[in-house]
Write a structure and sequence with these properties.
single chain; 172 residues; Sulfite Oxidase, Chain A, domain 2; 2 domains; 6 helices; 27% strand; signal; plasmid; OxRdtase_Mopterin-bd_sf; TAT_signal
């Protein structure tokens, strides 16, 4: 009879612990770190995780262009894709002839030549028309090409490379 209270307390403690664990994600005390804004996996297997601050620290450039998904000319700002790719120490020659698997939050993915980063100077747009892009605005990162400035970019096959809600690049 002496053991019954211990068993009762153990069950009670177990139920209480499970209840706290179930509520923990809602508590700031137990909040998990957010997913990085961009994850880059290099051919060596090295993984670089870039936060918003890392993207903001790179030199930003502007592209004013039309898109197939918006009306009129839009102004985009963000770092060149090439600066993001080489920011971890890889060089243009390391990336020569390689491909990039670029993935979006909605599971869309496309393989494109790494050479696009230099041939067309696309940016990883973080802002559109002066405002930071949110997920519902095709953000937080949108791979944007200077479509209006380059006639060869005005083809449907090139439009497929405009990945919005971009969160992952794997260098193949």
């Amino acid at each position: 009879m002496h053991r019954a209270p211990e068993t009762f307390l153990s069950r009670r403690t177990l139920v209480l612990s499970a209840s706290i664990a179930a509520l923990a994600p809602a508590s700031p005390l137990f909040a998990h770190a957010a997913r990085p804004m961009l994850t880059i996996t290099e051919p060596s297997g090295r993984v670089r995780e870039l936060e918003d601050e890392d993207i903001a620290a790179l030199p930003w450039h502007q592209i004013a262009t039309r898109t197939r998904w918006t009306e009129g000319v839009q102004t985009f700002r963000g770092p060149f894709l090439r600066d993001v790719l080489t920011g971890g120490g890889m060089s243009r020659s390391d990336l020569a002839g390689r491909k990039l698997l670029v993935k979006a939050l909605n599971d869309y993915g496309i393989v494109l030549p790494a050479g696009d980063a230099w041939d067309y100077a696309p940016i990883l747009a973080r802002e559109m028309n002066g405002k930071p892009m949110r997920v519902r605005d095709k953000g937080p990162l949108w791979l944007v090409y200077p479509r209006d400035q380059r006639p060869e970019l005005q083809r449907a096959v090139m439009d497929e490379r405009w990945v919005w809600q971009l969160f992952e690049i794997t260098i193949l």
